[in-house]
C-alpha cells in the first residue's frame, strides 16, 4: 500500500469525510488517489481560506477539521489560519506536502521549513520521514488535536512518501500512550466540587463567567443553566461563549470586558466570588489586571494548567474539563435553593442603555436588533473581525452552543467567509448567516467561488461603512480623528461582484428598509448578499479604553444629556 492510500485510509478511519485544500506539486500524488476514497475534497481558492473553512467546520460540528496544502507558499499561507485556531482552541489537522526527501535542506523549489513555522501556532508539528509512520502519526495528530485543550496539529509529508510502498501497514494503531497520559482531560475531585458549590451558595455577590471551553454541547449548556438557576447566580460570558446562555435569561448580564455591557462589567468589579470556567483572563476581558475584580475570591477552572495564574492570580485553581466540571457541579447543587435576587437587582441598577441611532439612516445597533429577532435554534452566526463583530457579539443572541463562530484570540480579518462556508458544509440543514464588514470581506472574497460552485446557501450581511471601522474608531478616540489609511475610498461595486458569482444581491440603506425587507430576505432559499450601508462614523459602545479599569467605561448612553 502506498503512502497516499495509507493516509486517506487513516482519515477514513478517523471519520473524516470532508477536507478543504488546494493541490500543488508536492501533493499531486495524494490528490491522484482521492477519487478512490470516500473523502470529499472542497477546492478552496486560497490556502488561508482552506484552513479557515476547516476551522468553521470544526467549530460548527465539534469534529476535527482537516485541510490540505502543498509545500512552501501553500503551507506558509495556512499559518494565519493555524494561529487563529490555536488561539481559540479549535481542533484541526493540517496535512502539508513537502519537497522530496532527497531535496530537503537544499533550498529546493518551494521548500520551506514548515514544521518550524508551525511550532508557534500549533499544539504539535511533525514531519513524516517514512510512509510506514503515517498511521501512528495520524492517530497521534487527531488525538492531540481533540484532547486536553483542543488545537491544530500540522503533519508535513515529503512528496516521495506518498508513492512509497509499505508492506502490510498497521492501520489500527492507537494513539501513543504518553499522549494519552499527558492529555488526560480532567483531574477534578468531588471535594473541589463540594467546595465550589458551597462557596457559590454562601457568597453574597457571586458571579460566573464562562468562555469558549463551555461553548460545546447542549448537555453542557443544560448543566450550566441548572447551576445558575439553583444557586440564582448572575452569569456573564466572554466573546467566545456567545450562544450558551439565552439572551433573555434573568441571570444573564451579557458579555464582559473591553466591549462588555455596563452591568456585566459592574458585576465583575463588585462581586465577592468570581467563578471563571473555560476561559482565558486575556487583556480584552481584564483590561488593567491590577484593578481587575479586586474584591473577589477567584476560582479558575480550565483544562490547560498553563492558563491558570498566567494573567490573574486565583485563590482556587482547578485543572479540568469544563463539561465535566459543570456536570458534577449541577449534580452537587441540584437540591440547593439559593437566593441572590438583591445582588442581581444591584447589577441591573447599573445597566445603562445605549442611545439609539438616527432612524433616518441605518444605525448598526438597530440593524442587529432586527437580525436578532430572526435567529432560531437552527441558525448559526459567523462573523468577521472589526466593529461589526462587536455589534454582533453585543446585540445578537444565538440560540445554542456552537451557533456563534468568530475569531476571538487572534482577531483575524478575512476569517468570516471561508469559516461560514465550512460551517455550512458541516451543518447542511441549518441556516448560516455571515456578519461581515467591507474591510474584512475583501481579504478572502475569492472564496465566493465556492458559494457559486456548490450553491452554498449563505446569507451574507455586510455592514458597509467605507472604513476599516475599528481602526477608524480608535483613531477618532485616541489620535485626534486622524483617519490615516482607514478610509476605503475605492472598493468593489458589490452588486456587479455578486453578479459575477451569480449570487443575488440586495442593498439596504435605511432602518425602514431593514425592518421591511431583512426578515424575509434572511428566510430565502439559496445564497444571498445583503449590503447594509450603515452610518459611516458609528462607533461600538460600550468600550473600555486599553489599559483602563473595567470601571472606566466609555459610551453614548441614554441617561446622558
The CATH class of the largest domain is Alpha Beta
Percent in helix: 25-40%
Number of DSSP E strands: 18
Radius of gyration, in Å, reads 24 Å
- How many separate helices? 22
**Low-confidence segments:** none
CATH topology title of the largest domain = Rossmann fold
Oligomerization status of the protein chains: single chain
Main pleated-sheet profile: 6 strands, parallel
CATH architecture of the largest domain: 3-Layer(aba) Sandwich
Please give the order of strands in the largest beta sheet: 2-1-3-4-6-5
By CATH, the superfamily of the largest domain comes out as: Thiamin diphosphate (ThDP)-binding fold, Pyr/PP domains
Write structural notes for this entry:
With 561 residues, the chain is an alpha/beta fold. The protein has 3 domains: 3-182, 3-Layer(aba) Sandwich (Rossmann fold), CATH 3.40.50.970; 190-348, Rossmann fold, CATH 3.40.50.1220; 364-533, Rossmann fold. Helices cover 35% and strands 16% of the residues. It contains 22 helices and 18 strands. The strands form 3 sheets. A 6-stranded parallel sheet has the order 2-1-3-4-6-5, with helices on both faces. Helix 22 (511-522) links the parallel strand 17 (505-508) and strand 18. Helix 3 (47-61) packs across helix 17 (416-426), helix 15 packs across helix 16 (387-395) and helix 15 (364-373) packs parallel to helix 22. It is globular, with a radius of gyration of 24 Å. The mean pLDDT is 96.
